[in-house]
């Protein structure tokens, strides 16, 4: 698997790009299934809850790319690719897609960078979920107007967001990685 | 291939405008500017002869999101709730239409090739993405197959189950290997110059236009502060 190929640890091969793009398109298909549930809640004043509850699913493509390819920048580029696929093929957010994809990927990337790109397991994923929670929350402070909500709602949202990101972009990605290792695909 | 004979701006310029203005929208707090952005984008879309029915459907699909944003500030906002509600309600549409000026007027292929020509986007990414986008229908089909085969074993894959993603990763691994090999055997070499058959003219004035729009927005949003 290209993930462990030492020779290509730095650069991006055509295969890596296609691999991530295909995963990005699969995510696009999964997002479409999810977006029905999202829409039902998002059409009500509970929209911020819908955002934060589902955020983990939107951002898991990044850390998944990170733990599979294990190289600097993989998380950010993985998330950007998923966002580009999303914008070009499935868009319902328009321009916001690419920009938030960048922000989300950056948040996750910072987590892995904190371990010096040496830990792609529990610690790296944990830091990556914290990075993503903080960075995306700061972004929504401006972009989604969280600065205008009252403090009680904000605290609830922050906790919900961390749980969502922690599960989907942390625990679930860790389980997937373990499964991949068990099947020996990385050999 | 063919010469692009579109009416509108170059895809790279549209991308620059989309990102340059889009990033600023997040920090500007103005209903007026959101509406101006929406109107200009709508006018541009109509000028490029995007079918009005398509636009209406797109605007209707986004309506629940805009209403949800609007309503949440009325319910949970602090300070000037009405102002906030209108800012963030209209912002949904400003973003949507700003994205649409790129995605609804230019084909995906043209966007990517234009970015590789004028914005130095790596060709490995451009052709890798293009190749994968052609798989869209097969990927949808494969997603269904994965679920059917699970159902035959009396299981149902849900998005929170790792087994679903394992199947996806296996498919992506096989297909990416096959596709990359197929492309190499058809003569795609990574990192080498390519023969170009695609013309994508980008007159200088369009760069000026993009820069002008971005600076004008900056000035209006952060110096004039309209309502």
From TrEMBL, chain A:
Source organism of this protein record: Liquorilactobacillus capillatus DSM 19910
Domain of life: Bacteria
Keyword terms of this UniProt record: Membrane, Transmembrane, Transmembrane helix
Membrane-traversing stretches: 12-33, 53-69, 81-103, 123-142, 154-176
Name of the protein described by the UniProt record: Uncharacterized protein
Lineage: Bacteria, Bacillati, Bacillota, Bacilli, Lactobacillales
Pfam families associated with the record: ABC_cobalt
Automatic annotation (TrEMBL), chain B:
The UniProt record lists the keyword Flavoprotein: no
InterPro entries assigned to the protein according to its UniProt record, in alphabetical order: ABC/ECF_trnsptr_transmembrane (IPR003339)
Keyword entries, A-Z: Membrane, Transmembrane, Transmembrane helix
Transmembrane segments: 7-25, 31-48, 55-79, 85-106, 205-224
Any coiled-coil regions, as ranges: none
Principal cellular location given in the protein's record: membrane
DNA-binding listed as a keyword: no
GO CC field: plasma membrane
Membrane topology qualifier: Multi-pass membrane protein
Places the protein is found: Membrane
Protein name: ABC transporter permease
């Amino acid at each position: 698997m290209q993930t462990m190929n030492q020779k290509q640890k730095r650069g991006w091969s055509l295969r890596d790009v296609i691999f991530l793009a295909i995963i990005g398109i699969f995510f696009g298909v999964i997002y479409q299934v999810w977006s029905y549930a999202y829409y039902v809640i998002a059409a009500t004043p509970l929209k911020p809850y819908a955002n934060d509850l589902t955020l983990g699913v939107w951002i898991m493509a990044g850390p998944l790319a990170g733990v599979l390819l294990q190289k600097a920048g993989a998380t950010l580029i993985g998330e950007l690719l998923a966002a580009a696929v999303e914008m070009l093929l499935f868009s319902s957010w328009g321009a916001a897609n690419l920009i938030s994809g960048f922000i989300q990927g950056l948040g996750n990337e910072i987590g892995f960078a904190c371990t010096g790109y040496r830990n792609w397991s529990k610690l790296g994923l944990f830091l990556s979920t914290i990075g993503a929670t903080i960075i995306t929350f700061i972004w929504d402070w401006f972009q989604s107007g969280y600065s205008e909500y009252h403090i009680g709602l904000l605290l609830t949202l922050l906790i919900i967001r961390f749980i969502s990101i922690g599960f989907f972009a942390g625990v679930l990605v860790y389980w997937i990685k373990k499964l991949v290792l068990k099947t020996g695909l990385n050999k | 291939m063919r010469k692009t004979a579109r009416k509108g701006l170059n895809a790279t310029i549209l991308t620059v405008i989309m990102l340059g203005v889009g990033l600023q929208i997040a920090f500007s707090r103005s209903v007026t500017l959101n509406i101006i952005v929406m109107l200009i984008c709508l006018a541009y879309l109509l000028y490029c002869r995007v079918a009005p029915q398509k636009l209406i459907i797109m605007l209707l699909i986004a309506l629940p999101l805009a209403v949800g944003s609007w309503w949440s500030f009325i319910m949970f906002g602090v300070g000037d709730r009405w102002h906030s509600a209108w800012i963030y309600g209209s912002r949904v549409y400003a973003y949507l239409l700003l994205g649409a000026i790129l995605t609804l007027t230019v084909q995906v292929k043209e966007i990517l090739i234009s970015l590789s020509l004028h914005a130095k986007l790596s060709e490995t990414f451009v052709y890798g993405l293009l190749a994968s986008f052609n798989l869209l229908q097969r990927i949808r089909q494969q997603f269904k197959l994965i679920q059917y085969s699970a159902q035959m074993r009396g299981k149902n894959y849900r998005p929170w189950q790792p087994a679903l993603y394992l199947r996806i990763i296996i498919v992506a691994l096989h297909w990416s290997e096959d596709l990359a090999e197929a492309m190499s055997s058809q003569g795609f070499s990574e990192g080498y110059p390519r023969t170009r058959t695609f013309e994508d003219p980008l007159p200088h004035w369009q760069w000026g236009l993009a820069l002008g729009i971005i600076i004008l927005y900056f000035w209006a949003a952060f110096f004039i502060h309209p309502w």
